[in-house]
Structures are given as structure tokens and as C-alpha cells.
Amino acid sequence: MKKRILGAVLLCSCLFAGTAYGAEAVTAQGSNTVILVDGTAQEIYPYNIDGNNYFKLRDMAAVLAGTDKSFAVEWDESKNAINLNTSNAYVLGENDLQFPAGALTATAELSPVVLYCDGAELAIDAYNIDGNNYFKLRDIGEAVGFAVNWDDTTQLMQIDTSSVGTASVTQGNYMYQGNADGSDILLDESFTNPDYWDNLPAFDVVVEEEQEPSADAKEENSTMDTGTVSADVQQLLNHATLQPKLTRFEILNDLILGFMEQNFTDDMDTYTKAKVAYDYFINTTQYTTATQLDSSWFSAEELAVIWQHYPERYAIPILLDHKGVCNHYSSAYAAILQAIGLDVQVVSGKTKSSAGGYSSHVWVTVRIDGVDYLFDPQVEQRIAQRNGNVIQYYRFGKPVNQLLNDYQADSRYTFAEQK
Q1: Global model pTM greater than 0.85
Q2: Do 127 and 235 belong together in one domain?
């Protein structure tokens, strides 16, 4: 007996106008987790519903892009349905692989949209959450032709595009409840620890809107020469007590030291180094999806550990290929400031959007003499792009207590120290 045919990602918002998804609505718990795609670690954002993980269709297409099992997500007007076209490549969208906006807990309803694969109708269940439809990974694997397995070595779900069909995966193995900041995890534990991934803060929820400086910032900088930093920030950084530190991960330390060797000179003071690094990310980095960590870089034990460390796993990719989003910019910049000797934290929360309201965001704070100062190279880059690509340092070394209306912190992270 054919199961109810349900839908995929909502391609047109008007499609669902006035449509009842179903009588039953259930609670969905959002999270971020990691899967291995042909051995490469990819971060993805499912919802857990009744003990099963459901993934957004376009996110699945995004992590499979470039593999032998890639597929395009297309709307078929003649069938009034979505078709997975395995002959066409998937084009990554700006909202792909982004943490769901809003609260972690959402309402899910059964979705009536019809799904096809290469013109053949599929009979698989899906849920609609906030206008997007979510499927089980195994169901899409069976349709497209990739296998879903459990990797005992890394304790991660694995997509194998060289195999057809799926293996049984107990999804409870990797969906857990725990503290939002991972504070209940011992640093040496692996992904078998049941207390981490489900309640991480909402990183990369949306692409931050281009931001105009606040009225206070404009007034404060009205007499500042374009492209300069106020003398008080320079004096502040140069009088900070320095305690240079690296991280516990050799690959990240090599990247940090390589950066410092190439961009710093012996005669530079602390202020100049901080400014050079700040300018570097603004001038050389493209705001786009970052390269995922390659599992071949690490042993199984190292891979399990680094994915438990928020700043470290985001600092590495952007230092390799100059691509990333706010948490990559801030994590890498903080790692360099820490190596210089400053007392840094990577902070996640919300920042005011020029379009109104707030967007989820990640920035850096430096503590000097008990006061936190904000550094935000990614937003600074957006401001510069609207001002002839001239860096004006509106987000360089500003006291946090002067920006409480513009930045609202939720969680703070530090780098794990060397053993």
C-alpha cells in the first residue's frame, strides 16, 4: 500500500497559502550535528521529531554537491511537484546549511507536497517546519542512490556515495540533550558523550544584513579621519598585559604561526598587529560558505575532539582558503589575538540589523583591565563595502558597555589550552 506522498523544500511561499498541512502538529527540536560525506566532515542542521532526525532537502543537496550523487532541486510545473534531478548540479544558495532562524524548538506539520526523483514519484514522509520541508536522510539516500551508515571509528553518521542503499542507523546515537555551551563536556571525550550537540546556540542563522553605523558610532567617529583608529584604542592595546597562547591543535597552531610570520614584523606593537590582522580578514576574506574540515587532517580521536570546540573548528577553514561567515572571521581573528597575548573570547548572540530587528551573529571581545572591548571584522567588512572599501574601524576596540543596544551576547567561548 502506497504511503502518503509528502513534500520537499518549499520553493514558492504562495504554494501553501490556505493549505492545511494536517490535523496533527508535533514538536521539533533543532540542532547542529556532523556527518561524514565520503570521509569529509560536514556540519548540517536537522530537526529531531519523535526520535528521528529530519534534514532540509536543500541542505542534503548542498552537502552532496560535487559528489557522484549530487542532485538539483527543481520545481515541475506540469506535476505541481518537486523533482530531484540527478543529471543537474546543485547550485548552493545563501540560506543553505544555515542554522534554523528563531527558537530551537519549532512546530512541525505533515506536508502534502509531492516529491519526484528523475520523474519517478516517491512515497516518503516529510514534515514542514517554518515553510521548509524536512526528510529522513535514509529516504533520500534510497531515492538518489547513496548509502547511510554509522562510522564506529569517528562515532558519526556517514554518507557513502560509492554504495547504493542504506544501512540501519540508530539516530538516538547522535542526537542528545545537554548544556547549550557544552560546559558539561570533558575536553577529551568523544561524540559518544550524550551532553553536547542538541542545544548549541544558533550559529549562522542568517547572512547578516549590511549595517550602517549606529547614530552613536557616527557621532563618535564624526571627527575621525577615514581609515584611522582613535588614539585611545592604540594606547589601550599597547598597554595591555600580554600572555601569548596557542591552542591544543597542531594544525591550527601552524596556521596561526604561519600567518604571524607572513604578516607581522619584529618592530610592530600590539596595536599594529591587531590592526594588521583585522585588515587582513576584511581585505582578503569572502563572505560565503567555508570549506569543511577534512577528516583526513586528523586522527579519529582528534576529529572527535576538535568538533567539540567551537572556536577551533571555525578558525581553521578560513585561514586555509579565505572563505567563511561571521563565526569563521571571529574565531580566526580571536586565535591570532590570543597568540599575540591578548585575553580573548568568541561571543555568540545577536547584532542589530539595518533592516530592523536583530540577526544572529558572532564577534570577538578582548578584556583589558577588567573591561571588554569589541572587535568585529565581519560587520566591519560590510560597512567598508558600502563606503568604497575603506575600513573605518567602527567595530575595532569599542567598549562593549557602549554597544549594548547593538550587540546582545548569549554565549562566550575560549580556546582550549595546550596540554
Answers
A1: no
A2: no
